[in-house]
From TrEMBL:
Lineage: Eukaryota, Fungi, Dikarya, Basidiomycota, Agaricomycotina
Matches recorded under Pfam families: Cupin_2
Domain Cupin type-2, chain residue ranges per copy: 77-135
Signal peptide: none
Name under which the protein is recorded: Cupin type-2 domain-containing protein
Length: 185
């Protein structure tokens, strides 16, 4: 007997609310200053009902075929960014206050995120957990199929900016496929 995995219910594109943020460079953290692609927040991208699970989110991401889910965890409490890939984060449990751009950056973005929210984090954008909600906080972390991700802290001597500059942008939206917010930035 085989069991099938249900995909998570995606909010229709015409009802989706998306926020875009350009975040200035701060010290050795490039944020959106290199590719000028914004941090995208898909508010309630997945209908946050009680059936939203990590497995269902992963099944949806796999069905689009652009990204591959690689972990289930919270967000690191230390500022970090990736220089080798863009990252898709989807909250499947709980809520949190998160920071993008570096907490000392006057141009930072602090957001409250909760179950069903998704964030497309361009390479170079620092992010960290500020405070986990009382109900816990877990996400699915995904990267483009075939990509490898690194961890950078803004203290590296290597030229992370060259890695970021060499990255292409997305030819499909990682959640909506052929017509989604990532294609219109």
């Amino acid at each position: 007997m085989s069991t099938s995995v249900n995909k998570a219910s995606l909010t229709p594109l015409n009802a989706l609310r998306v926020s875009q943020y350009q975040i200035p460079r701060h010290g050795r953290i490039p944020n959106t200053s290199i590719q000028h692609k914004p941090l995208l927040v898909y508010h309630s991208a997945f209908v946050p009902d009680t059936h939203l699970t990590a497995v269902a989110v992963e099944a949806h991401i796999a069905s689009v075929g652009l990204y591959s889910a690689q972990w289930q965890y919270t967000m690191y409490a230390k500022n970090h960014f990736h220089s080798t890939t863009h990252e898709l984060l989807v909250v499947f449990r709980g809520s949190a206050r998160v920071c993008f751009g570096g907490e000392d950056n006057p141009g930072r973005v602090e957001l409250d995120v909760s179950k069903g929210d998704a964030m497309l984090v361009p390479a170079g954008v620092a992010h960290r957990l500020l405070e986990q909600g009382e109900d816990g906080f877990e996400m699915v972390g995904s990267y483009p199929v075939g990509a490898t991700w690194d961890l950078c802290y803004g203290t590296e001597g290597r030229n992370v900016e060259a890695h970021i500059a060499a990255l292409g942008w997305l030819n499909k939206d990682p959640l909506y496929g052929d017509d989604g917010p990532a294609l219109h930035v």
